[in-house]
Amino acid sequence: MAENNDKHPSRRAFLAGAAAVGTLATQSRAQSDPAISVQPWMQELGDGVDAAPYGVPSPFEADVKRRNVEWLTADPVSSVNFTPLHDLDGIITPNGLCFERHHSGVARVDPAQHRLMIHGLVERPLVFTMEDLKRFPRENHVYSLECAANSGMEWRGAQLNGCQFTHGMIHNVMYTGIPLRLLLEEAGVGTEGKWLLAEGADAAAMTRSIPMEKALDDCLVAFKMNGEALRPEQGYPLRLVVPGWEGNMWVKWLRRLEVGDQPWHHREETSKYTDLLEDGTARRFTWEMDAKSVITNPSPQAPITHGPGPTVLTGLAWSGRGTIPRVDVTLDGGKNWQEARIDGPSLPKSLHRFYFEFDWDGSPLLLQSRAHDSTGYVQPTKAELRAFRGVNSIYHNNGIQTWAVAADGSAENVEIS
Amino acid sequence: MAENNDKHPSRRAFLAGAAAVGTLATQSRAQSDPAISVQPWMQELGDGVDAAPYGVPSPFEADVKRRNVEWLTADPVSSVNFTPLHDLDGIITPNGLCFERHHSGVARVDPAQHRLMIHGLVERPLVFTMEDLKRFPRENHVYSLECAANSGMEWRGAQLNGCQFTHGMIHNVMYTGIPLRLLLEEAGVGTEGKWLLAEGADAAAMTRSIPMEKALDDCLVAFKMNGEALRPEQGYPLRLVVPGWEGNMWVKWLRRLEVGDQPWHHREETSKYTDLLEDGTARRFTWEMDAKSVITNPSPQAPITHGPGPTVLTGLAWSGRGTIPRVDVTLDGGKNWQEARIDGPSLPKSLHRFYFEFDWDGSPLLLQSRAHDSTGYVQPTKAELRAFRGVNSIYHNNGIQTWAVAADGSAENVEIS
Prior knowledge:
Two copies of one chain form a homodimer.
Chain A: H1 11-27, E1 79-81, E2 100-102, E3 116-120, E4 126-128, H2 130-133, E5 139-146, H3 163-167, E6 170-179, H4 180-187, E7 195-200, E8 207-211, H5 212-215, E9 220-225, E10 228-229, E11 239-241, E12 254-260, E13 275-276, E14 282-283, E15 292-297, E16 309-318, E17 326-330, E18 338-339, E19 341-343, E20 352-360, E21 365-372, H6 382-389, E22 402-405, E23 411-414
Parallel strand pairs in A: 3-12
Antiparallel strand pairs in A: 1-2, 3-4, 5-6, 6-9, 7-8, 7-12, 9-10, 9-11, 13-14, 15-16, 16-20, 17-18, 17-21, 19-20, 21-22, 22-23
């Protein structure tokens, strides 16, 4: 295959590719060319401004949607709806497409009746209405939220055919919220307060223990995402934001924060969300999400449809520890690696968008990406992960993903040794 | 009124305020307190993940919507739907709430039939399909788009009661697109190519002349906003992004780019979108949007409902020339100014979010904000603007806005000398 060996696509290499595009386009020009004809939508008035007080996508985008996997769970009230990563670009996930995972369905909370209580080892137990909370100083941060089980099906080999299903338990939005530190200081937390229990107002009463050090560091009690109120499936009207840590700690429909001197060992941190190793022991409290990346295009749900020539490869990379200064890409299953171009804001604990433009000669490809984070950590292969952790777990699989692209442009999820 | 005189709220001032919140909350605790009782949504299962492939806001947020003003235009197909700035926070505008302005309604474009043609003074006239365009390198940028007529009704005095209507012709999203420069270079633009005509595929065939210098600088041909496809009312499937310049140049449903040696003097740059002065002459080609700001809360649509005590004032500031390093706020109509706290990413030609936390003593307020941009430009008063430009224009009013807050917390749009 013919590759672009420059770190950033050179002017000459780019023009060589683009000329082919131009030629293709020019070849197709004819009397019936839509560029020359006056199309129907130029001959009629469209909808007025009174048509959509809250806008929705074009009907032509109906296939861009969250998808669940029916056989994955016993009931849709305790299941997952995956983000269509292959349909997106940039780093912001639109609210309507943010993956959702809940344990008792989407709680229908009335914000006027919702309360947040802080109690336990505090000087002043407090109860806040939503209006009370909006009198505290706010901050705005873009953070990625990844489920600990993202890519979990892949531990035992390539299972799911599409990045929506292998990597779609992640989203990235701008949160507006109150630093949790301010609320805890208001309640008065002394030196004996070492742990915090966060509880949701859903029927599952989702609970997780969080060390006080993290709670006082960068956690937020958030009420907005991407500018507007949290969506119901994301915890409306209030959720905990625990930057860089696994998604189920970001307790939704947040109603209670209890301060204690030790963890609570609840269900979601013992029976679930622990990592069973080969010897029968389990890793616990593996909160931080390791550096990871995935190529979103081309991928099984987004094959190459244009044939050989200039091709844009793109993907996402992230780390629970900081920023992503570098992503490598290989087209041949790891024989040769080249540095991708990262574009858009580089924010800590946020998705990063990378691109690699190349001139595809039409031969089969083995695509992989490898993230480096700001601590120097490098994303491992799945084989390296399995050597240490076995294949019993379903959590914290951040191994390198491989897509095999065939000569016809179709792609599938494969494992290579 | 008791003000917080610190540039950033001090720990002590904050705690004094927060304690009041705590006391208020504690006073309301009782057997019927929702924090103690088990609420209905904790006793039932919610919707499963199969309920909403594309998510929507909570029913409790039904009032958060774009609004039009029926008397403003003759027909809703050529009108405006304003962004509810008072309901939002952070800097990202969710796609469903981005203001819309069109001249012949929302064109219903089929992306498979859509073409972009580049012709005129070029070496190689080109026609691109959407798939062709997606083979070019992409960039991601957050930019604000402001209509030249934003705040236009205010030239002759306070008219509209709410920042949604006075300032709601602005939105701020992350665009993914191709640098326009790359497409023009592909077509081959020589030294005689001084101007570009951009044309939309709506029934109005919206057209604007753009100087080549700007076209080659930072313009994008965008196909995504906030990660997903452009919304129909924002030009689906393709729009021009002209950072920092007035919104009607960001041609939607982009179908044609013609290169020429002089401007075209079309309707939207002669009869409209020019600034009529007192002497009967008009300023033309006033593309760049000057630095501006508005307090979004409190405001007429968002009164203070919690009574005296800790109060969060917040708003937005922006400049077509760069970033906003500083915003000043006054609570007394300009007698005393204090620096607000800017929070969240500070990106060029993007909205900036500011906050000012203060302890309201319940007396009337005259709220104003004043933006400083990275070129040193300072937002003027409306009186200063009128002294130079008269009151004939409806465009480019970036004067300081005043909200009068009464003792009961209600607010209205006023003018002060």
